[in-house]
Amino acid sequence: MEDEIIKPIIDAYLMRLSATDLKFKRYLYDKINWETRLIGIKGARGVGKTTLMLQHIKEHFPKKSEALYVSLDNLWFKTHTLEELVAYEYAHGVTHLFLDEVHKYPDWSISIKNLYDTYTDLYIVYTGSSMLEIDYSKVDLSRRQTLYTLRGLSLREYMAFEGAMTAEPIALDDLLERHIEIAYDLFQKAKVLKYFSAYLENGYYPFYKDAKKDYLIQLAEVANLVIDTDLPAVEEVTYSTVRKTKTLLMLIAQNLPLMPNVNKLTVQLDTSRELCLKMLYALDRAELIQLLTENVKDYKHIITPEKIYLNNTNLMRALAPRSEIGTVRETFFANQTSAVATLTMPKKGDFLLNGTSLFEVGGQGKKFDQIKDIPNSYLAIDETEIGYGNKIPLWMFGFLY
Length: 401
Prior knowledge:
By secondary structure, the chain is of the alpha/beta class. The protein has 2 domains: 3-150, 3-Layer(aba) Sandwich (Rossmann fold), CATH 3.40.50.300; 157-399, no CATH class. It has helices at 3-18, 49-60, 82-91, 108-118, 155-161, 172-187, 192-202, 208-211, 215-234, 239-253, 262-269, 273-285, 313-319, 325-337; strands spanning 38-43, 67-71, 96-100, 123-129, 146-150, 289-292, 307-310, 343-344, 351-353, 357-362, 377-381, 391-393. It is globular.
């Protein structure tokens, strides 16, 4: 292979690298063991997976020729293979390979396994859609790789991104036991409620800073692209199923929170019960919605969810701008806590965390009426700076990661 053939890949890599800023790094950056030979990073569109890899290259590779970043949705791969590229670059000194959008490449897991086995001193980091069921792909990578998941910005990260405050994540147990003193300390650093309101509207996806006034338009397009391109790349679906999945997403957005009647949904979508449930779980894996089930969610054994939310409050603004404040609060709570705990639907109350801690979510006037006398029960209260007893300010659940 000649240098001229590779040049578009190298040019694209160096251009992306030069535009990468090192000022703000996501919470996952320092948690990744970059010494592992095979690393997978899953996450929804727009949460910053690409930036994460490029920041690592920029910070740790003085000789940029030793690392190569490439997005596998590049048109270059219509006439060339990943194997060709790696063979050439490895012979020219590349020791670390960073692959973006792997789910766009046919039989990506086979290619990565073969590269891993062939080049025994080559380090590979790849990113892919949050929809990837990597452990169940055509080739088992689980014994070879370390897999990470990157979520959208937490409220804690958003405030750091805005330059308002830096703070360490709060462990859930510490939050439940010590929320008063923690809240007091944090409010010495910044007026959190001001940033909390802004975060609910436009703080979950890092690209909000560049998008500015077009953020909600771009976010709606992200949701559209996930269904149009990511879903078919991961699942074998027909055009009809893609269209019905979009309709399903909008039905959910227009009826938040949705207590699903699957039989009714199948009629509205003109589909089968099985396919309707598969679409729901696909949207959940894509991090466009959040399914709340009575038992811990298991993607191998699909059951009817008890309640459905959109994944985060920014998506609500983009797809369901007239949502009630109560639903906004519950969506925020579910989104932030599900990053660090298992979330299920209790018989009483709104959410059960890790099967032990029961929560009701509401405004300042919320009382324990519905969950009184239940052990380990708490209220997550909005519009409150500092709580008391088992009443915890809602914003504090944005500091869990």
